[in-house]
Queue: 2 jobs
Job 1
Amino acid sequence: MKSSSLQKKLLVTLLPLILLGLLLASLIMYTSVRTKVEELTDAQLTHTAQVLSNLVNHEFIEHGYVDRSLVALDDIEYIYHSFNASINESMIFQVRSLEGVLLLRTAGSPEYPLSPSSSSGFSNAMIKGKTWKIYTIPSQKNGYTVQVGMKYAFLDQIQASIALQALIPILAIMPILAMAIVYGVRSSTIPLFHLSQDIRQRAPHDLSRISTIDLPDEIIPLISGFNTLLDRVQEAIEHERRFTDDAAHELRTPLAGIKLQAQLILKQQDDAARNEALTYLIQAVDRTTHLVHQLLVLARLGPEQASTDTTPASLRDIAVTALADHYNLANKKHITLKLEDGGPGIIRANPHSLTILLNNILGNALQYTPNNGEIDVEITESQQAVILSVSDSGPGIPEHERENVMRRFYRIPGNEGSGCGLGLSIVGRIVDLYHGQIALERSSQGGLKVNITLPRNQTP
Amino acid sequence: MRVLVVEDDPVLGQGLQSVLKQDGYAVDWVKDGESAILFMDSSEYTLVILDLGLPKLNGLEVLRHFRTAGKETPVLILTARDAVADKIAGLDAGADDYMTKPFDVDELAARARALSRRQTGRSTPVITHGDLQLDPAAHTVTQGGVVIEFSGREFSLLQALLENRGKVMSKDKLTESLYSWKDEIESNAIEVHIHHLRKKLGNNLIRTIRGVGYVIDKPE
């Protein structure tokens, strides 16, 4: 089917099929009516022959002669009149003696016998170039034969006209039926047109569900599926909107700080005070830069980013690089960085995402671990997963705050660190992308232990 | 003339503190909602500058707590939330003014002055007392058209006395309005400032009520 229009498809399939069916039915009806009519005309022919035979018989019994001359003219008239005048030309008869002498005939009848057959029943004969149906009644008892003939052309005409009359209602119903089919198909596809119109006329931001009221049952699953998608899109947009909203607000505060310090510098006459304000200004710019950086990291952590490159990566190799990157900072605070021995921790994941994950966890640990502390990284493997644990000897996170710290922009009250409250959100997002799990607990050194379980074969 | 700044961003908080100090306010700065309530309950402030997104207890809750306790100190909300609904919620919760971040420092100072002026029941910006005029915005004092120079604290002390004309101000009350809790205060600081004021403005303006405090009499 070239056209993918449901309506066309239905019409193109239904209409010819139904019309063909009707035609076939008409044909069958026509032939069966014709057969019935033929039976009727045959009976008529037989009946006529019998009536004629009886009449002739009656005349013979009355007059006692089997002689042509004895049949009175008025009797013949009477016999003629017993037939419908209109069929005169189409109907003929002959009465012959057993010897074959013609006793009586209609005007249209030839001199020679209508049919060579002398036995009782139907036969066909050619008379004056036309085909006739002949019925013969031989009579041994009375000594004469009656033959009645009817023109085939006339028979056909009767049969056809009666059969056609029977077909009229069927033929009349055909266009009505066709119209009904077109209407039915149209009206059952109208909800689809309304639906597409509704969807087309929607405002771009309108993500409300599509009503399934008045829709055909067959379409409801489609629309339900579509509605589920709409809900998810709405949720995603809402999430994005909240994120942008939060991000804008989070950026405003450090920007206000920058502007305030800059205005203070303009007003300040005293060099020492100006330098102090400049220090604060630079600090504010650094914090804002860090915030913007973290926001960008978080914004770019979409599912597509996680799936771009999922060749097998060694978490251990990535951890080694990340630890090396943090060595200087650790050294400044005299913090011992340790990576416990273990397997390579091969998982299918984007190495860049894993680097971001490790950098954020290590960055946090280094920020909160006091001087002379220690940070311990451990990678263990199981059949299904690779487990990364980072323990530090910092202050840890109280149990009631462990859920909060995973939220965006959340900072533990009284926490004077320079964090922007996004580090653990970023970690959480990456763990989610790889269908992993994150758990915060108390480390054996009394600080924080971050446990991350990443399944080996995830499909991000 | 003591102001409480409630702001969790260190740079912004520090900046606000500097600006307000320059304008002659004594400034206390706290970084979370719980501390804000503690400070509000324990001291008398001319003005509170309140951020909304605070750790522990958000700004609106602090404000509601404050108003429920019957405190009438003007509160200026200084926040990143700029939606009309947020402004309405803030003002309806009992704020007297609402500013969004980032802001202009001079506008903030002007609004702070306006709010403290209303607090002392005055609507004209310049305080006139005889031939003496004190302009809190310009930070100037003139006597008979002649400009007289004052240090920040001297100016604040004179303003406090002029705003409370006819009321005897105790030494403690004056100290509280002049110094933040972090300032180190000499026990005779107020006496020293009064002495300086008298030197510049003459001895008749400020009267000492022995054992009670100081007063500038209402003009007849």
Job 2
Amino acid sequence: MNNRLVLSIILAIAVIASMFIFANLAKPPEKNTGGKIIVVDDLNRTVILSHRPRRVVTTLRIVTDLALTFPSLRRALVGVDDSFPKTRFAEIVYPRIKQLPTVGNKKYIDYEKIVSLNPDLVIAKKQQRALKGMDELEKTGIPIVYLSLETPEDYIRAFQVLGNITGNHERARLLANYYSEKISLLEKRLGDAEKPTALLLFYQFRSRVFAVPGKGYIQNYEIMLAGATSLSYSDEYPGAGFYTIQLDEIARLNPDYIFVSSMKGDAHRYVQANITGNPALADIKAVKEHHVYPVPNDDQTWDMPTPRWILCSLWMAKIMHGELLGDINLTDETIGFYTLFYNISHETAYRIIIERLMGISVEKTGDGIHISASRSPALITRAMLPNGTIIYVNETIPYMGSIVINGYRYVWVKLYWWPEEVMIRIER
Amino acid sequence: MTHRAFTATFFLVAALTIAGITALLVGRYMVSPQQLLDRDSPGYRILYYYRAPRVAAALLVGASLAAAGAVMQGVFRNPLAGPSLLGVVQGAAFGIALSLLATTGYNSAIVELAGFAGGMAAVFLTITIASRMRIGDETYRLILAGIAVSALFSSLVGLAKFLADPYTRLPEIVYWLLGSLAGVSWSDLELMAPPMILGIAATVASGWWINVLSLGDEEARSLGVNTRIYRVLVLSAATMGVAAATAVAGIVSWIGLISPHIARIIYGYDNRYVVAGSGLVGAGIVLACDTAARTLLPYELPLGVTASIVSVIILILLLTHPPR
């Protein structure tokens, strides 16, 4: 054996060995002792799991939503909250979720059902500790990990916790890095930009009033990250919680931009009915300059503390500083987010945008294709005929209305609250 | 004890025992007898940690409310009187709502103690206001003061709901106040069972006093009874049980109104038996309603709702088909 060969073998062994060493160094310190997994949750409690969980129960909508971001955790779900599986979004992303037993919601937990499912882990939201019986659930021998999920930092920490639970640190790092990259991008691009004022109004459908998020809520951070001054980030609205706001107060604050959010995905309705069509608010800057927008909602409103909160910042930034983010296509960013976080195909992600976010549906009927818009008016700008010719249409589908088209292959649709046109493929 | 009372009590206790065993075994998860021997089985864990304390709580809450209802009807000589007459339920509800609103974390004991304190404070306020009133006799004053205090605490509960965050605290307050025994644990009972048991025991023991008070102040005084002291003692005992029951289960209406009427059909009008009988009947109704609330539908119904529906049906039946 010549020297070169020996040297090559030694080098190869050294390279492989160093790869293993660095791979292990790069891993976050997994607290794994004797096969046991030790997790520190957001109540700062140490939870010991005897093995990687194979039967997991989630007890709240946003926790179930979060659990879907880790494929192995998704597969391990044996029980979920009773709200998220009812959404079309959940059905599109993970059809099997509809068959899973449900165990409760923010008000009530079916403990008997949970125990009967024999889970080896329950993941709950921190506030659910407040429910009677949660402590007893732990006494039955079922470990519970509580997550806070209120702030951007909470999400980074939640990914680390889920990475620790599933052993998939790589995915945890990937998802956490997504946020770091987008935050860094927005800070870099918008750091020196002139800051307009913005106000997020949350429509409370039970009491039929608007509310603004308290200073401690994530919505203020989203607005500030999007290069604006959040008018509700004020000592007038301290801490966590939503504060009811009267119309005269909105007029006094006089924001440059208003973003309207609603849990039910019908925020655009209140934009017209309560703000732009309201004579009492006709003189405020946002109304005069047509800067009142409904927050996108794919069954979860983007401004709420779910993994989508970063998309809300990107969307707001595109609305307020479109000229500084000209190279960023929000549709592509949204597709990238859904494919990465929910492990779905490009086509499914596009479907969520068209169907859930924009409320546009395409239906074949005897006399052609009905395109309907259920969330806001939609302008059909262009269409491609079967022979490849593009024609300019400029026809509006009214809110909750539809139009019949015949013979088009693609149409391009523009909604006033989405920065780009989106293309819809028509098949007869 | 008369033969009739003895027989009735025997059958009521037997029925309660059967109902209790049935409630322990039925639910969304049916527990088999074999599982009861295996401490690691889900059935054993469900039974020990959830169903057993829940069944015990249902019995105590029902008995407390119903015995207190019998006391109120006897003392105030009003068949429409119920445990909430002096403001105890509304006071307890306000204590619960306030504790949920004021605390960021959660501690079941704090909420229950706040409910108990709120109920006792409301009745203390009622008695204080009644003692300063210058109209009517003492019974009349207590009723009027109770109405005022109930209204005050109802308004304060409304204010607490209005101030609560609609997506965090409000659902908790609403669900708690709707009445439920979901998640009741042994530690809840360690805290609230003593005042409930004390309240039940004291009201049951005070049957003779209630007989005397139900004659009216003049006749009672002519028998050498200090009506004022007797009334305050009897009402305090009833209040203690109701405040603790509300602290554990939330607002469970109608049980205290309907149970004494059923007890009177069974036992007659002697309050020495009616109060205890009412307690047994109330315990049975609450146990049945709670078992129905957690088993009838795929999700749990609030106990306050099922108890009200069942009680109102019983009331209508009593009114349309009066026993001969």
